[in-house]
Amino acid sequence: MKEELLRRILSSYKGRREDLIPILQAVQANFGRLPEEAMLRIARFIGIPESEVYSVASFYTQFRLTPLGRKHVTVCRGTACHIRSAPQILQEIEKVVGIEEGEVTPDLEYSLETVACIGCCALAPCIRINRDVYGELTPERARELFSTSKQMSP
Ligand code: FES
Are 132 and 138 within 8 A, CB to CB? Predict the structure, then answer.
C-alpha cells in the first residue's frame, strides 16, 4: 500500500465520525479497493473500532474489499436478462473461469460480480467485461467467449 498516498488522503479530513464514508470513498478511488491496512489506519484516525469500519465498508455495495481482476466481468441479473437465461449464463461463466460471484481468480485475471441491470435490456441477456458489453448470449456462447479469452491470456 502506498503509505504516503494514504497519509495525504487522511490529512485532508478532520477525523470526525462523519468523515468515515468520504474517507472510504477517497481511499477506494485511489487504491481501487479498500486495503486491510488502510481500514486499520482509518479506524485509528477516526478513533473508532476497526470492526465498525469493516461493517460500514461491507454494508455499502459501492465499497470493494478485494481487488478487481484485469478482466472484470459483470453479469446482468435484471428481469429482461433473467427471463432469458442469465442464471444459466452466470453458472457457465463460474464453471469456465473457476470462481463464484464476488470472487477474484488467484492470478487476478478475472473478477466476477452481478448487477441489477447493465442498461442494455434490448440485448438481453448480456454481460460486461470491463467496458465492453456482450449481448444476446446463450450459455454456449458465454463458454466460447471465455474459453477464447482464456487462450488469449498471456
Ligand atoms: S435487465 Fe439486463 S441489461 Fe437490463
Answer: no
**Distance (Å) from CA 130 to ligand 1 centroid:** 16
**pTM (predicted TM-score):** 0.72
For residue 123, the CA-to-ligand 1 centroid distance in Å is 8
**Beta carbons of 43 and 10 less than 8 angstroms apart:** no
- Grid cell, residue 89, equals 449464463
pLDDT for the residue numbered 154: 46
Tens of pLDDT, residue by residue over 17-50, are 999 999 999 999 998 889 999 999 999 999 999 9
The C-alpha cell at 58 is: 461491507
Q: Which strands form 110-115's sheet, in the order they lie side by side?
A: 110-115, 71-76, 127-129, 132-134
